[in-house]
Amino acid sequence: MMHDIRAFFEGDGWPILVIAALVLSVLFWTASLIGIAFFYYRDYRYRRAYSRIYPALRDFIYEHVLAENRTSHFPVEKLGLDLNNKLVSKVVRHVLHEFIFTIGGEKGQSMRHLFNELGFDKEAQYEIRHSATNMVTTVRSLANLALMKVSIQEKILDQLLKSPQVEIRVAASKYLLQVEGEHAFDRVFEGLYGISQLHAIDIFQTIVQGDYFGDYIFSQWLDVSKSFEVNSLIMDLMVYYQELNEAGLWELINANKETKTALKAVNSLGKLLAKDSEERLQELYTGESSLTAKLEILKALGRIGQGKSIDFLYRLFIDSNLPLSLRKHAYRSLVAQKPYSTTLLRKIDGELDSEESKLIRSVNHPMVHYI
Amino acid sequence: MTHFISSVEFIFGLYCLLLLVVYVMLFRISSLSIRENLRKRNSRRIQTLMESEIAPGVSIVAPAYNESVTIVNNVRSLMTLFYPRYEVVIVNDGSKDDTLAKLIKEFDLVAVDFMVDYLVPCKEIKAIYKSRDISHKRLTVVDKINGGSKADAVNAGINVAAFPYILNTDVDCVLANDTLVYLMEAVLDAKERVIAVGATLRMSNSSYVDSGMLVEAALPKPILARFQEMEYIRSYLLGKMGWNYLNCIPNVSGGLGLFDKEILIAAGGYDPKSLGEDMEMVTRMCMKMCDNNEKYEVKYIPQTLCWTEGPDSLKMLTRQRIRWARGLMQIMRTHRKAFFNPSYRKFGLIVFPYNAIFEFFAPIMEILGIFFYIYLILTNGINWQMAILLLVFVYMFSVFLTSFSILLDNYVYKYYKRREDIVRLCLTAFLEPFIYHPIIVYSSIKGYIQELFGKKHAWGEMKRKGTLTPLPPDGVKK
Amino acid sequence: MWDKKKRILVVEDNEILLSTMQFVLLREGYDLLLAKSGKEALSLVSDESIDLVITDLALPFANGFEIIDRIRKSNTNNQVPVIIISGYRDDNSIVEGFEVGANDYIKKPISPSELISRVRLRIGHA
């Protein structure tokens, strides 16, 4: 091999290789430049189409959707748009999206009808049937169909809900939630797996923005074998709808004490004011070693507290060997437990050393919003 | 003698071949990585996260040292980022001018009682200020004793920060207003725990900035800044995005990086003695995760979210690069145990060795190569036809890679509104190997020599670097 | 000369939402001042006489909270009613909005008829 490289530099029959590489570089370079020019051209075309279509569409919407009392059957032919043209259809879709996310209420409904009447339902239906492998178009079409509240054939929807691609599964779930509301809950939660935290947030938003106020039991879907993301989503929903299920949350905590799922469950206990968990949380604290977990427990005690933990918190607060953050949170949780802790707090005030009083002042400071 | 020459040729030949392979690989995977990012982006509304009430909180930590002129506008721009839950922690690192006074006046600040847990080491915090205006309740100003380095100031910010994620930036950086949304999206969408995320940086030198907000991006007019813009585009879109695909990112730059606070603290915070504190921090975080046997990701996203002012004089540029080179050398020395160490998994087997061999040794190999070339010329040992052919190829290959990065950049977003900017940028690629590259190699070598030399002279010289420079401490400028 | 039309300052950086509100409010006969950034809004608030402010929260230069805070602390227009229009849906943002002195909070997307009735509630017909 050493000889080969020597021979290479000496040029024994090798220059052809270098020439080929050189030619390739030049070719790829040219291709890059063409690519850059193409992107510029594409952008230019889009902006030109936008500046033509946007004012016309806007005025149409103002005149026929906002000014008139019409809710459907819009005179779309007046627009004179060639929606078979891909560029035109793309621009129209973008503009309409903007308006749909801007205008709500009854007029928002009318906007969705307009979207539908421009033929976007057919386009989207076609795409979910024929490009089920193309993630971007499928997700987009599902979102559009949800906006228009157009129904999808059960067989296709089922396929999408079981798609191996998580983006598509989530989009299909969101579609179901938007179109069927609470009736979709069972089906959506049943098929929920492999999601990221971002998907969880997305689904959470879809549910709470759907103006659902019912008594659905979200906690039935808590399961120690499920991923953090799924359990976390369910706990977020439980907190949002104030559904307390102490047994379910404790099951998560006991199953894997050190994980973020357990931390989240402790946090949820606090936010759900699980007052029967006060003693158990103290026990949990004693057996706990991680600082993050201890802080989470203290915070929860502050929220729940019915006076049963004030001695416990007091002992933590006065223990100068503990890290500052623990003492801070212990004190904060005492303050949160007024009136149960009022006498104790008064007693503390009387026996503070200078360090402790500084700590207390910082906790109580009205301008310090997060600690 | 011939044996000596063939051995040397063998080493250089192998080195170049490997480098070529790496670049061809990056060429392929960077586009895959960017396509993946854009595909996901196109399929969802970024607003979901922005409007979410359960979005995790972020603490922005920005150190300031003698920034009196620009501080108010820059803080304002940080305060108007779009994200539902965040705070801004400005660390006044013992400025000698009226940086703090200006902040106090503009935002109606008052000193509040405080107790700080020094979770990561930093110089003493003298005071913490909060605003009397409720509308500025997101703002915290930390006044501390100058620690002589950016690292020390950031550590102070970390100690005060309330939220689980830290965005580390410089006050003189201009951020896009959806920076937090984009970076958090990358964190929340990953399969494993993301310990750090970065995004593309470019130069703000000739961009139109009004009151700390970017109004229009433009290609820098000063030639040095323009070279840097090109270098950044290449290093982010080709390099970082490529490595992102393999989850092998070596560094998240100090200009803009989002970090998982828990790991940041567990790894011990920034090292005030390091001259490349950002890379050193990421290195230590990765090693910490490997030590704990936990899976992790370091990510990059292709969008440009941060515009920073690049040094536009030769003196400033070489000074910056000398510091980077020394920082790199320190890391290579301090963390050498990771080198081809299988217990550090990908980090020990790919990231660290790549950095050592192709980042750290590259300037050395280049200089040695030139000497070898001269030697061969003198001894008449050169096949000129082949030599020139190779030179032309390498030149063209570098121009191609740069142009390809510009293509990738335009694939992500068209940042320049004016068409001539892009033409100029493409032309700059031809000049770079002759003008800019030699400056960089020179600075690196000088940095290595200084570092070797500085070692004998203990830390005295290093300390001075931070405290006595009339400009912001070198660490802040990065 | 004696223009008695009620005057509303609308602060919004999204072109479509701004022009939609413009259309809706002009049709009701209100006089409008438009601002696309916090900076423009602040200068208009200090110079012009205004009957109502409608503002977004996420704005360049100075966010909605700060605009309201400045209005309440200024010498002119400090009593003017303010309606927030925002995509932020979390309790914190809403509470903070009222804390700095907003009179109303509307979440996006906005219903035009709701907007009009909330405006009328504050300043009556044009």
Can you put this structure into words, describing what you see?
The complex is a heterotrimer of chains A (371), B (478) and C (126). Chain A has 18 helices and no strands. With 371 residues, chain A is mainly alpha-helical. In chain A, 34% of the residues are buried. The mean pLDDT of chain A is 89. With 478 residues, chain B is α/β, with parallel strands linked by helices. Chain B has helices spanning 2-42, 47-50, 71-79, 99-107, 150-160, 179-188, 223-245, 261-266, 277-291, 314-334, 345-378, 384-412, 419-456, 460-468, 474-477; strands spanning 58-64, 86-93, 109-112, 125-131, 139-144, 165-169, 174-175, 194-203, 208-210, 213-216, 256-260, 297-308. Chain B is globular, with a radius of gyration of 23 Å. The N and C termini of chain B lie far apart (46 Å). With 126 residues, chain C is α/β, with parallel strands linked by helices. Helix content of chain C is 44%, strand content 18%. Chain C has a five-stranded parallel sheet, with helices on both faces. The model of chain C has no long low-confidence stretch (mean pLDDT 90). At the A-B interface, helix 1, helix 2, helix 5, helix 9 and helix 16 of A face helix 1, helix 2, helix 12 and helix 13 of B.
Topology, pairings included?
The complex is a heterotrimer of chains A (about 375), B (about 475) and C (about 130).
Chain A: H1 2-10, H2 15-67, H3 86-102, H4 105-130, H5 135-148, H6 154-161, H7 166-180, H8 185-190, H9 197-209, H10 228-240, H11 246-255, H12 260-271, H13 278-286, H14 291-304, H15 310-318, H16 324-336, H17 342-350, H18 354-364
Chain B: H1 2-42, H2 47-50, E1 58-64, H3 71-79, E2 86-93, H4 99-107, E3 109-112, E4 125-131, E5 139-144, H5 150-160, E6 165-169, E7 174-175, H6 179-188, E8 194-203, E9 208-210, E10 213-216, H7 223-245, E11 256-260, H8 261-266, H9 277-291, E12 297-308, H10 314-334, H11 345-378, H12 384-412, H13 419-456, H14 460-468, H15 474-477
Parallel strand pairs in B: 1-2, 1-6, 2-5, 8-12
Antiparallel strand pairs in B: 3-4, 4-5, 6-11, 7-12, 8-11, 9-10
Helix pairs in contact in B: 1-7, 1-12, 7-12, 7-13, 10-11, 10-13, 11-13, 12-13
Chain C: E1 7-11, H1 15-27, E2 31-35, H2 38-47, E3 52-55, H3 64-73, E4 82-86, H4 91-100, E5 104-107, H5 112-123
Parallel strand pairs in C: 1-2, 1-3, 3-4, 4-5
Helix pairs in contact in C: 2-3
